[in-house]
């Protein structure tokens, strides 16, 4: 029995052993089969696709990029350098084709140890995103499992929820070093692939520049180079006209500039000359080809050399500009020392060649309070010559007289009675020199003595009206306004002058519907519509040159960059004088007004007789306009002039708003400024022998 039992036990063990061996063999067979399939697959990849894979790994891409060049320089008419480019050290980053967040963060962290980076531009959103990037597990833990499951596949919504869960305490945990890394990381990620991003180009110390240069192998994409910034040789002189440049493309015009070949980091003109002549000043970028592999730059080849922008030669004379600026400051300060001048805070002067339209001086000074310095000081307000307007008074009477000639209601030599006009419903209107009597006066003396009534009666005739003492004035005001404005525009009054600068205003036109008959008369003496000082300069130039409205301009020439042998390069383009229109008046009529303007300065009863002794033979017209400024009644003063009378080479407009309160002691700051400015022009001309 025992033997039989042992036999059965051995038999069972043998069967179990055979069963295990079978299973092991099957397992080995399966493993062998899988390895065989893997080896077969690898063989197929190696033999069939091996060359394609190798080519993919070794494949390079050629990406052409452009690098910025310095802007063109700006000179005055005598080739004095006004705006230059000053080189400065800079640290840049070439953004790779493929963005790698971890690698980019490493670069930012390494660079933060080598340079100081301003953190002022960091936003709250930047801090939140940076905290999440530094603490991904903790940020994700702020979202419950249920919320994660619900938002599965909606990464944007999940990330938004994580942002909402970041607390003020979390952000407060970011150290000063963290913020500096963030500021750099922000710059590294704010551009487009394969474009050069400016990391730091202001106040880069020599030590920072050297440290970064020594560590470039550890900073992929980072480079040290030379950048530039605009340098203004005359400090604040004419800064409001020269304009400025941006730091990178403005967001509101990003698409506009990007479509024209600009990069996000490019500087562009943001105002006035820099903006108007952007296409000229920007230059031709250097084009380079970056050979890349898997998003990394392997080699850089120069395809075409860059060339800085073309240079501008202005019509402006900076020596004269500085002198006129000085005169304005001195005369404003001197006049403000008198009584009744509490609102006087600005003055303007434009000097223009009436033959060519070249602007020699465009001066504007404003006495304003500086919040930073906590004091009043003079600031440049040259742009106010064409973007602010004022009622100017009697200086427009030359246009009124010529409008009378052109409409046939008047003619040279015609006399009228200067008398106080008593119109029902309005205050008595009279000339300053005749408040109560009856004076027979012709057109010439109407200009010399500045007869308001002569201009009133001209306007009444244009509007087909008739004056009857004590009665309402029956006049076609719509026709009167329309006709006078049409004729005034022939001189540049009330329309754009066409100057080669952006932002020109046409002035304020009084509402015809709201106007009354008396306003028609006010218009005729320059006390209804407002005009810019530049419009006044174009107006007097039109009279001075015989009736041709010439377009004013501040750029005289465009020149190619100098080759180093000469101070300026060859002329690429010369700005020719442009006549916009000829006034519809005969030569005789224009000369009649010219004689009247000369009489203003030479006749014993002329309103500008203080000019009589000036050696440069001036002619012109003064103006005084009553208006309201900040709730107070004030007088604006103006002056238009040209010289020499026989062969005009310079035309001038002076406008001094709010020169004194109505009822206070009058002053003649407009003529004080005008005389000094014309003397300065002719003195400088004779001293410097400036080219005609």
Provide a brief overview of the structure.
By secondary structure, this protein is of the alpha+beta class. Helix content is 39%, strand content 21%. β18 (619-629) and β19 (632-643) form a beta hairpin.
Proportion of strand residues = 15-25%
Work out the helix count.
24
Shape: elongated
Distance between the termini: 144 Å
| Overall strand count | 20
Largest sheet: 7 strands, mixed
Assign a percent range to the helix content.
25-40%
Structural class estimated from helices and strands: alpha+beta
Cα gyration radius (Å): 40 Å
- What is the averaged pLDDT score? 89
Low-confidence stretches: none
Structure description:
By secondary structure, this protein is α+β, with helices and mostly antiparallel strands. Helices cover 39% and strands 21% of the residues. Strands 2, 3, 4, 5, 8, 15 and 16 form a seven-stranded mixed beta sheet that branches. A hairpin with a 4-residue loop joins strand 10 and strand 11 (375-380). The radius of gyration is 40 Å and the shape is elongated. The N and C termini lie far apart (144 Å).
